[in-house]
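Open question from group meeting: does this chain pack into something compact, or does most of it stay loose? Before anyone orders reagents, we agreed to write out a predicted structure and look at it together. Recording both the input and the output here so the notebook holds the full record.
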Amino acid sequence: MLTSVQRTVIEANPINYPFGNTRSKNVLQDFNCEAGGFNLCSSSLKVLFLGSGDLRNALQIAENESFNHMQIHLNDLNPSVVARNITILKIISAPDFNPEDDEDFAFLWDVWYNLEWPEVTHKRFRGVLKDLLNDLYPENVSVPKTSQAEMLKKVWSAWLSVLSKTESEARVLMEKVGLERKMSISKHWQLLHRKELENAKNCDSFSMAIDDLASNLERSIGLGGLDDSSMQNIHEEAKQYFETGSCRLENDIKIVCLNPTLLDHATLRWTLHYSLCPFDGYMPLLKEELVTLMKNKMMIRSCQKILKNLLSCYRKRLIDGKTFELFFYLEDALEFCYSENVNKFDVIDCSNMADHVGLANLILACSGKLLDHPSAMLFTDTLRWFEFKSVKFYLEKVLCCPLSMIPTIYGLRLKSRIELGLPEYVVDLRCPTSLPVEVCWQKAAPFRNVVMSASPALSEFLYQLANVCFDAKFPLRITGVPPGAGCGMLLYTPQTFSYVVNSMIQRLGGDHWLKNDVRPAEMNPNFQLARRTLEAWKNGQKILKLSANMPTASCAKMASLSGIPSIRLILLPKAKQGNCSDFSGPGVHFIDNFEVKLENFSTGFEDASISFLLILHHGLEKTHRAILVDILDGSEFVVFESFESVQVEDWSIPYPFIPSKIQLEVPAPKEFHIKVESCVESEDQFHLKIKVISPENAAGIVLFINFPAPCESSHEIRVSRMQQQKNYEPLSLSFPYPIILENIRLILDPTCRHVELVVKKALWELWPCEYRRADDLYNVIDPDQLKPWKEEESLQRSLKTHISSQFNINHLANTSLMKKSPLNVVRRVMKALFLDPARPRYVTIQRMNAPEPDWFFLVHRPVSTTPTGRPFLLLSAIDFRLAEKLVKGGKWSEEKNAEDLKRVFPGGKEIMTIPIKTTEDSKLLKFVLRLNSSKIKPSTWQKNNLTLGEDSPWMATFVSPLYSDNPLLDVESADASSRSMSDNNCCAACKKVSQSPKRCSRCRSSVYCSVECQHQHWPQHKMVCKKV
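Structure tokens returned:
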């Protein structure tokens, strides 16, 4: 019950992914050892995979040869997934296993992917299982918890029993599973293609389904230039897999049994996702990965080639004697993170768990297990971000705050610059569907000597989060599914709200930023008991764990649920009997955080039990009963009719976020000193009120800002006196979001002995940590090594398609519809630079009515291709505004400037000027160019001809498309529509947005701008109000 996630009954209709359906990735490619103080020789790198799925991501990091010691921790809740991974490791870690040996690799491929097995695989796999049941794990593999090791033995025993069936029993099982598999594929495909089936007569839905699935895979290969015959062969190859569930190079194999690792170990049912295919895990292919020597079975040969490379890296590491330890955990991912005995990690990869538990729940749990060094990284993926049409909107909606407030609220910073469009490793125009988006997070710097105060921005965040966490509106079939349900927001609970608030109190050193009236304002009366229980737990008071066995009838009813329902525990007065569907009124308590244990057998759920927490003197023993309710359709399941049947014990596990006191620098008594009394944060600035304690007045206060050039942002400033006193240290102030060094306002009030300090956030400036030497990056781009862009040989779409994909497609024909945002202005600069190779190589960027250009570019054509297939255009650039500052500061001379300009931009050459309008456009362009300059090494020409360095206005940089999240959709309009539908400040009567909205006191769901509007709307609202 440490987890803050709403319980879902995934056991009712389990959908399993025993092998991955996306390409593996190297999570260490951006890990900077130098910044983290990591010793490659002696330090042990610790990586955690939450919801690990199959092994390919873990094997992928074995290719990082620079790390001598690695500890890989893999967690998954599915016993079959963990048992499969250890079994595969047992196979590939054997001293006599050779991935280049056809027989060895065919055996591994059978275990990993194929449903149907020949006798040789059957016999060999039995031997592997017997070793594992005798605790003969690979030397580098361990299961730390004995109880979990015993659970894995049950899985291996179930597999062994399948392989021990007689020939006739095995044939019966094959027929049963084959029929289940066909029905599963047909059923799910029919749900997605109802209209097509309405017009089809006497159709074979299974044949139509597998043909359609094969066509989808064919389109996702991503390689152009293949002839029709090759594409047809690939289509037939995929179709054959979907028809049989197996793919192998060998023909005419006699099948004797099924692969037990692909079945539910408890029920022996087929539970794989209907569209899952081995080839998906290797898509899209690179051109060099496609095996074309033989036209038949190209997909199998190509995918096996990639897998063999992964296995070779892993086995080479073992042979070289480099440590590669693997630890497996079989438990809920969030419970695992909140456990006290868990290590902290350098890298945590969460796969797409954010969609299944909610992003706020996930990053709260993971951030506490992430090491504090600067290079530690957390990766979260989402497949459902497109519900909000844009990755930026997705993050802001699911976290209930603007991007610039995330460091303060969640203690993390976005390493991924998603405000510039899709991250570059997500973009693949070869794929017909949206790829999962991976977002990288790092620990944010803490506040130092800053006392946070309540602010409208923080109050709005709390209000938005509370609306999601204390949502009493259900069943959803009546109230409607709220936005973000598919992204996990439906799984936020009161415990989510408690964890977020108290993690902030812990990091900010107190609750001085929390308005007193915010706490009860959002609270529906049905959640009061849950809130009191959480408060008691947080305060270290005694609370109770209550457990009960569920009636058999309720278990059977729950097993018959469709989909993956979310359930809520409701404590009802005994007087409310029967299927009432009305859960309003006094004495009704909602409990969203509880534990349900369901044992899934072939006959249904057995031995189901439920546990939940309550305060010590809850007073419900004689008056209440308990039911579970499906939030979607309102179905009810009796838990117990009386508390007399409930087992009660003390709950001794401590609350995860213990409040702490802020540690301020304490000045010596009777001396001059300064302290921050308040800090009000908004989306774009910090406004501080500083008290000056001195026999004199506050005059003479100055700021000291230390930052390494060319960085123009800093996390820290120092406040001091112009004339330093003896034994006085300046006051250092630190902020989690860096501040820009321009436009700092210092307002002195000598009479009241206060200073007001206003600092702007560096929204369009690189963070100090982003100014790293290119040599520190694993995936740094070396322009000299890039190949020229060749349209006819490109792995991706045409150059024009790449550039067009920066914009909404519907706006390209009519640019007047395009939003005039700074991002679109910069995208138009990219378009001008890329699409006309006949244009001059010399380019200036100049704001309208500005006396001089902001930038001067030398464009190094031709266009090149990055390793990921994106167009790349190298630039040698000079920042004229920076040059002016450096000259004024004495770090650069006008003579040097003129000399370099003459060398790089000789006279008499044609120059093209690209106009931009606003200062915001210029700032964003500068930000993009500086960000890109941190990702490349200068070319040989640039090293020889440019004066590069910290105190130079010259820059080796590049441009590449800033892809739109969804070029087929008008993101701005979609966001506006979404906001108009879900804006909590929109008056239900006149539809105006109010700055001080009034909420219906009865249902708390409708908002009004005035009492008059509320009275006017009552005839329409009263029917809804009664239901809510």
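Observations to bring back to the group:
The domain at 673-761 is CATH 2.60.40.790 (Immunoglobulin-like).
The first strand starts at residue 44 and ends at 50.
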